[in-house]
Write a structure and sequence with these properties.
With 244 residues, this protein is an alpha+beta fold. Helix content is 18%, strand content 25%. The chain has a single domain, classed as Jelly Rolls (Sandwich). A 4-stranded antiparallel β-sheet has the order 1-8-3-6, covered by helices on one side. The chain has a 4-stranded antiparallel β-sheet with strand order 2-7-4-5, with no helix packed on it. It is globular.
Length: 244
């Protein structure tokens, strides 16, 4: 993370000058929020676990997208994106930092058979809902993996950011300006405890996020995870007598 606000502003302005014309070919009445570089160094310890991104709009009323653009070819060997197709339909409509960050640890192994790694050429883009379950394998190449990431929102829809400091605190809803993410010196460490700068538009009862389990996941996606092989009677009988 970078704490130099002036530098971050220069990077943002340069990225916007490149991204705006390109996105106009795909979207209408949109705006770009939070363009950043994401750099993954080499190392087996650089896995980014599966997760869902924060809300950036009120998802009961509006849609927004994440756009992920590698600056060189990416594959499972150098930190492409894992994703689970269709998982954006999970009804996790309140997501944010810290306490509000969805806990997917309990389904990690369960969904691993259907996690896909998308190979992309330099300059190609993956566009997906923020609710999509995704992550990134380690970068095993010598060179750092560099991507551009940002959000695409409807032009006149406000940012809609949830914040809850702890389990007893109220769930707060903020409508910050589009530059709010740059206020933090370290987004990952700061955002669980520091609300975004902006208008507080609602204060609700404390939210208790649902911890996803394989059973809950399968209830929403009964046909996604292939069933475990069930050996027939003769196969089970053979196994019994062979002692294996």
């Amino acid at each position: 993370w970078c704490s130099d606000r002036a530098y971050k502003d220069r990077v943002r302005e340069k990225l916007l000058s490149i991204l705006q014309p390109a996105c106009k070919r795909l979207f209408k009445d949109f705006r770009i929020c939070g363009p950043v570089f994401i750099v993954k160094r080499k190392g087996e310890d650089t896995t980014f676990p599966i997760h869902q991104d924060w809300n950036v709009v009120d998802e009961e009323k509006h849609r927004a997208f994440n756009m992920w653009i590698p600056l060189h070819d990416v594959s499972a060997e150098n930190g492409s994106l894992w994703h689970v197709e269709g998982s954006h339909r999970l009804p996790t409509l309140v997501r944010g930092a810290g306490l509000l960050f969805p806990n997917l640890y309990g389904i990690r192994d369960h969904i691993s058979p259907v996690m896909r790694s998308l190979d992309l050429k330099a300059g190609e883009a993956m566009v997906f809902y923020h609710r999509l379950i995704h992550g990134s394998p380690p970068n095993t190449h010598e060179e750092p993996r560099v991507v551009i990431s940002f959000s695409i929102l409807p032009k006149k829809v406000p940012l809609h950011i949830f914040f809850q400091k702890d389990a007893q605190s109220p769930l707060q809803v903020y409508h910050p300006n589009d530059l709010f993410i740059y206020q933090f010196d370290n987004v990952r460490d700061d955002t669980p405890f520091v609300p975004p700068e902006g208008e507080l538009v609602a204060e609700l009862p404390p939210h208790q996020p649902v911890v996803l389990t394989p059973e809950i996941f399968d209830n929403y996606f009964p046909d996604l995870i292939p069933p475990s092989p069930n050996p027939g009677f003769w196969a089970r009988l053979k196994t019994f007598f062979s002692g294996n």
